[in-house]
């Protein structure tokens, strides 16, 4: 493993991955932009659920909300790991929001930091959780699908009956396969030709606690 979850070497280890590891730059950009694509699909899925009234199935919907928060936490911790300017200041600002919680806010923030500021302990535990949470997300997604199969998903017509239905294969198999191919083609085009489009330029500078970016 080439990444180092240490405040001194984290930034340079990411640079090492991009410059010295075979296809490391490609893995990094697929990983970073893949997270953005995942959230685009996630919000489209939520929008579809709201439009079709899927929130009426409370168990499925509530598990979906849990999945959303777990995914956001995973993405946030992953954004901190490169230890650039936006990584450090994003971690500082977002975690400090918890200090607004009455009575326990300040103690909770220090507990998350592992000290009195965002530092090595914070980066180390964020790295651990960024690795562990996807497995929890996968298990929660299975529960989400179990509830979905119990209630059934909504459709544009809002018809729950079994009449006038067609087999999943080959009709929807080919339809889904075509959709996956189109999304992958667009994603690879994005990764190979516009890899930095969604990146903040400040995150290509090492974290500096004494220099706050102007837009923070």
UniProtKB/TrEMBL annotation:
GO terms for cellular component: mitochondrial inner membrane. Signal peptide: none annotated. InterPro entries: Cyt_b/b6_C (IPR005798), Cyt_b/b6_N (IPR005797), Cytb/b6-like_sf (IPR027387), Cytochrome_b_N_euk/bac (IPR048259), Di-haem_cyt_TM (IPR016174). The chain crosses the membrane at residues 29-51, 63-82, 88-114, 126-147, 177-198. GO terms for molecular function: metal ion binding; oxidoreductase activity; quinol-cytochrome-c reductase activity. The keyword Transmembrane applies. Residues 158-216 form the Cytochrome b/b6 C-terminal region profile domain. It comes from the Eukaryota. PANTHER family: CYTOCHROME B. This is Cytochrome b. The lineage of its organism: Eukaryota, Metazoa, Chordata, Craniata, Vertebrata. The gene is cytb.
């Amino acid at each position: 493993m080439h990444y180092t979850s240490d405040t001194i070497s984290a930034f340079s280890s990411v640079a090492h991955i991009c410059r010295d590891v075979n296809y490391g730059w490609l893995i990094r950009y697929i990983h970073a932009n893949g997270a953005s694509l995942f959230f685009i699909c996630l919000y489209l899925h939520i929008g579809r659920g709201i439009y079709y009234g899927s929130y009426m199935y409370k168990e499925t919907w509530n598990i979906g909300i849990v999945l959303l928060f777990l995914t956001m936490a995973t993405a946030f911790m992953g954004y901190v790991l490169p230890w650039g300017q936006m990584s450090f200041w994003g971690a500082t600002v977002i975690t400090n929001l918890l200090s607004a919680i009455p009575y326990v806010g300040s103690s909770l923030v220090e507990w998350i930091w592992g000290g009195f500021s965002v530092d090595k302990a914070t980066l180390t535990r964020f790295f651990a959780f960024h690795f562990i949470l996807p497995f929890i997300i996968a298990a929660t997604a299975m529960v989400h699908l179990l509830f979905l199969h119990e209630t059934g998903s909504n459709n544009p017509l809002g018809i729950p009956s079994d009449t006038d239905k067609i087999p999943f294969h080959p009709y929807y198999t080919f339809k889904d396969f075509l959709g996956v191919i189109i999304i992958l083609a667009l994603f690879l085009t994005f990764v190979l030709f516009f890899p930095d489009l969604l990146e903040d330029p400040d995150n290509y500078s090492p974290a500096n606690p004494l220099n706050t970016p102007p837009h923070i």
